[in-house]
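Support case: FE2/S2 (inorganic) cluster complex. Customer-provided input:
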Amino acid sequence: MSKSRDYILLYINGKKTKIKDDLAFKSLSDFLRYEKQMVGTKIVCSEGDCGSCTVVHGKLENDKLNYKIVNSCIKYMYQLDGTHIITVEGLKLNGCLNPIQESMVKNHGAQCGFCTPGFVVAMTAMFEDKNKLTQKDLKDGLNGNLCRCTGYESIIKSGMDVDASKLTYFDQMYEPQQIIDDLKEIKQIPIFIETSEKKFFSPVDLKSACEFKALNQGLTIISGGTDIGVQINKGMRDPNTIMSTSAIDSLKEISVKDEYLVIGARVTLSQIEAFASELYPAFYDILKWFGSPQIRNSGTLVGNIANGSPIADTTPFLFVMNAQVELSGINGVRQVNINDFYKGYKSLDLNNDEIISKISIPLLKDNQKLKLYKVSKRKDMDISTLTAAFLMDENQGKIESIKIAFGGVGPTVIRLKKTEEFLNGKYLTEENILQAGQIARDEITPISDVRGSKDFRLKLSENIMKKFYFECLEEEQVICQ
Ligand SMILES: Cc1cc2nc3c(=O)[nH]c(=O)nc-3n(C[C@H](O)[C@H](O)[C@H](O)COP(=O)(O)OP(=O)(O)OC[C@H]3O[C@@H](n4cnc5c(N)ncnc54)[C@H](O)[C@@H]3O)c2cc1C
Ligand code: FES
Ligand code: FES
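Agent response - structure generated as follows:
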């Protein structure tokens, strides 16, 4: 291993902070509240759901600090090296309330006040990009913040009533150059921290990451930590050896190359949104309902794939697109079609020395229709009961080829090969779709759980086929025969 350091360096509200030993393994919310007595950051759910622990996370991107909101309860200190955290305490202007806080007071945006710091931090970050927020901006931007007593009307009103002339941006509050220079200086040095119980490694290149993984069987790779953070907080996982991929620059790239969108393992879901809106509008719509802004700012596509959940929202899309998963290991790189990547419930085709380095998704062709569905009890911030993806090449109402993938109907996301075979070469008619729905029922093996019974999911599978058909019909792009 090349020369490494044994500390995490970050800035908190403009103050340089060095973290060593056991403190590196604390959650950010605990660190702020119990080590720094910065109790403005509240903890309610500890699982990324309520947003009361929201802080701003500034990351170095192209020699600038790019500030986004995240949930501090599911971020661990070892994930924060080379970043700048701004908490609600750090938003005061010359010791006084900032214009967002003033507006919350004026518009009665708080009652018990427990959620208020989270809302104030989230809104302040929204004003970084826009001087005037609409009701829609606020509703979309605040869907990771829950309030149980005030009611959202006065909070939204507060956001719309902010005096923009008084706004101050993060780079004005915190002179960026010194922070950037300091963070850049340590960026290329790997971190190795070992305590009596735990080990943490943050390599700066893929080769070291693969070597370390090979030597430490059972280690936990952490990316955005939105799955792992919840699992740790809820006592479902207590990793002894953790490796972060956050300092490996080659994993942070996203670009269109040779008819593929190529997404590095450290690219966040928020970063993918801009590409998806142009290249795969149906996938963009799914991403908009993925968790919350806080979750999308941390969580990655690769984390969603590697977590291996059969109800992961991105996977059915990747299945029908025949996305390629790039696996990097000690002896080089191999590509696996995502349709072959899952061997069973949360079991992946991943060798001991391998990490996922990239996902390559073919671009849509002109004659292809892509439709994606997420069925859940609520629209905002909910876990899917069933997910479905359809990719159809059609010519004048005739299905030249169709790919269908369902999630939430078995131990992994699956392709409905028999249903596809039945529909290929047929006209897209109601009769054919009804028959296909019956075949689909026979291809899946759903179970009953809190989100829906087996029978409900079987019926849903048929109905989602009909929904696909009627939507195609509505778009008048098919000729029925
Ligand atoms: C409040 C909340 C809402 C959510 N909403 C949704 C939702 O709407 N839809 C949905 O599908 N999911 C949702 N999730 C789950 C989670 O956000 C996603 O699965 C996310 O994509 C995980 O990405 P991550 O980078 O945070 O992964 P992490 O938590 O860092 O890692 C997840 C898994 O991937 C492994 N891993 C990470 N990187 C690599 C790599 N390079 N190679 C090999 N293995 C790797 C890790 O070891 C771990 O097992 C939600 C989670 C929370 C807390
Ligand atoms: S405490 Fe609820 S999201 Fe962190
Ligand atoms: S003000 Fe009480 S939860 Fe929002």
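DSSP finds 17 helices and 20 strands in the chain.

Case will auto-close in a few days if no follow-up is received.
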